[in-house]
Amino acid sequence: MTDAASSTAIIIGAGHAGGELAIALRNEGWEGRILLLGEEAHLPYHRPPLSKAYLAGSVEKSSLSIRPQMAYDKANVEFIGSVRVSRIDRANQRLELADGSQLAYDKLAIATGGRPRPLSVPNAAVAERCANLHYLRTLDDVEQIRAQLAPGKRLAIVGGGYIGLEVAASAIAQGLQVTVLEALPRVLQRVTAAELSAYYERKHREAGVDIRTGVQVADLEVTGDTVTAVLCADGSRLAADLVVVGIGLLANTELAAEAGLQVDNGILVDEHAQTSDPHIYAAGDCTNHPNALLGRRLRLESVPNALEQSRVAAANMAGKAKTYASVPWFWSDQYELKLKMVGLAEGFERLVLRGDPATDSFSAFYLKGDKVLAADTVNRPQDFIAAKRLVAEGIAVTDAQLADDSRPLKELLPVPAA
């Protein structure tokens, strides 16, 4: 039997999930080595500000680190950056690295996250070699985009999801000419109701962003080593000085799949964050987990999910049974608007608004029967706190109760038993 102090735990991926898992594993009592492997040179850093405050230049690079080096030193976590794992040898419990070296593990955690979905157009490969075409996922990506932002420049953004709209808000504030091209009939269509889409489209247009929906990108015009325009299926041509593509994320599951782990729209894990191999766990954007609230599996791209699932993985790797059963929640900052969302609206029957969108402070509730499936809150932190309980606990409410903005939402919550 392996001595606990001589055991080695390795975490592949040093994003939100990997960094949290490493520290949590030590806090849960793991006595052996903990190696945190990252493809980037940076210590784990906050990703949400990349398309928001950091892109806008309102926060310093130093503020992005989730924890300082001393925190990893104190926890005796060995961070190894700029390293890529090329193969997981499950039979011998070893990792093969791109430089040819190998590392042995007793427990392994995969927290490889995801990568931007590439634009599928004829000139994509040529355009991706141009310095003015960008995908936004890493700190290095944003450094390159920031260096090209300047007043008067023409920025074309492909994709009207959270990333695209956050970039638009940051860029328009810096004096760029910004156009957002969204293939679907409305922005944020995959994640929110038509009323919220209309509200955000209005706010962006009022700020000066040119929002174009129902637009299919057919190709990119490349002149020399520069993307000069976005070509649309309707024959229109949008001249651009730089292009940012934000059309979704692909889960990084290749390592797991090649190792024979079960993969289906993410690495399949159970409620303990364990994969189909009892020695291997996984957490974050790359996983597909059973969600008790929804009664089905899903893959979530969410920082709270990454953090909470990592803590569950860490506890179980350390031999302490812990179950993952968190309610999904997300957030997005655009201009002065703080959007916080809880739950998943899939299958909702009706929408109830609380407050007036014209005031830039309101909430939208997605209901099925007398239960709240999900809620979107704009500049309403107290509504969000109450909504988390409404969703998680399946508290019965009426439309009139939710819509009554004269009474605090917390009055609908049952008082916890003494």
Structure description:
Residues 329-413 form the Reductase C-terminal domain. Residues 10-309 form the FAD/NAD(P)-binding domain. It holds the Pfam family Reductase_C. The chain has helices at residues 16-27, 53-56, 69-74, 124-127, 139-148, 162-172, 194-207, 254-258, 303-317, 381-393, 399-403, and strands spanning 8-12, 33-37, 77-80, 85-89, 94-97, 102-104, 107-110, 114-116, 133-135, 154-158, 177-182, 210-213, 217-223, 226-232, 237-239, 242-245, 249-251, 267-268, 280-282, 287-291, 296-298, 329-334, 337-343, 350-354, 362-368, 371-378. The protein is of the alpha/beta class and 418 residues long. It folds into three domains: 8-115 and 250-318, FAD/NAD(P)-binding domain (3-Layer(bba) Sandwich); 123-247, FAD/NAD(P)-binding domain (3-Layer(bba) Sandwich), CATH 3.50.50; 336-412, 2-Layer Sandwich (Enolase-like, domain 1). The strands form seven sheets. The chain has a five-stranded parallel beta sheet with strand order 3-2-1-7-19. It has a five-stranded parallel beta sheet with strand order 9-16-10-11-12, with helices on one face. The chain has a five-stranded antiparallel beta sheet with strand order 22-23-26-25-24. Helix 1 packs parallel to helix 9 (303-317). It is globular, with a radius of gyration of 23 Å.
